[in-house]
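Researcher: We're teaching a course module on how sequence relates to structure. For the next exercise, students receive a sequence and then see the predicted structure as C-alpha cells, so they can try to spot secondary structure elements on their own. Here is the exercise chain.
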Amino acid sequence: MTGADLKILFITDSLGLPRLDPEPILAEETWIVQVEQQIRNMFDTHIQFYFYCVSGLQSDTVAIASQGILKAYQPDLVVVQQGIVDCYPRALKKNEVSILSRLPLLGKLSKWFVKKWYKEIVQSRDITYVSLPLFEQSWYKVKSQLDVPFIVVPIAPACPAYVQKNPRIAENIQQYNQVLAQIFGDGFLSHAFDSVDADQLFLSDNHHLSKFGNQVLSQAMEKAIVGRIKEKGIG
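Model: And here is the predicted structure for the students to work with:
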C-alpha cells in the first residue's frame, strides 16, 4: 500500500448522512463519523477514510460507480450500508410518477387515491425500485470490480410502525438481506442489530437512524473494522 497504511471507503445512502428532519442528526452523531473518530483514536497509524454517501442511493448506481469513481479511491477495505431504497415497496412505478407529475389534475387525484389506499395498493402491486435479481447482480458486480474485503451492514429491521404503514417491508428487507449475506459471507454483519428494540433505532419517520441507532451501528462497525485492521497487522 502506498501513501496510507489502510484506505477505507464508506458507501452509504442517507442513513450515513446528517439531517435536520424529522429530527436532527448532526454530522458528529452519524455512525460513519463516530467510527472514523474511534478508529483514529485507537490506532497509531495512518488510515485514510473516504466517503461516497448519496441520499437515495441505489445498488445499480453503485454498480456503475464501481467501474469508475469508486475504483479511483483505490480502497483496501469497503464498508457498505445500502438497500432500503431498493427494497422499499412502492405504490407507483417511477415512470408512473413521472407521467402523473406532468398531469396536474390527474396527479392530484392519484395522490389522494394512493394516500387513502396506500397499504392495499402496496400489498397488491409488489413494486420496488430495484428488483431482487438486479440488486443481486449489482452487488456481485461491485464486489468483482473493487476486489477487496467488504464489511456490509444489513438493512435494518423494520419497526412495528413501519410494518403497519407498509405491510410488505419486513418480508422485502429479509429477502434483500439474504442476498447480501449470500454475496458477502463473513463480511455481512448479520448480528449488527440483534437484541435491539427496533422502535429505538429510527427517527419518527421510521426510516432514518436515530442517535441511538447510529450509536448501535458505530459500535458494531468499530468492532468489525478493528478485526480487519488486526488481520492486516496494522497499528
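Model: If you want an answer key for the exercise: Strands lie at 6-12, 47-53, 77-81, 150-152. Residues 39 and 226 are 7 Å apart (CA to CA).
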